[in-house]
Design goal:
Blueprint lengths: L8 H10 L12 H27 L1
Length: about 60
């Protein structure tokens, strides 16, 4: 399952029950999800730049 050893039995039990991912390879995401992420990051980056430029001009 994972190379990391749990701190105690309770933590091991919680990880088995909850099933949270221990390692995620972001390059293997589906294409629509990747494109949404690129759009999301790009939109906020451009928005922040636009706000900074607008504050300097006005």
């Amino acid at each position: 399952m994972s190379d990391k050893k749990p701190i105690n039995d309770a933590m091991e039990h919680m990880s088995n029950i909850e099933g949270y991912p221990t390692s995620v390879d972001l390059k293997k995401l589906p294409k629509p999800l990747k494109y949404f992420g690129y759009f999301f990051i790009g939109f906020f980056s451009i928005s922040i730049l636009f706000i900074i430029i607008a504050k300097l001009i006005l």
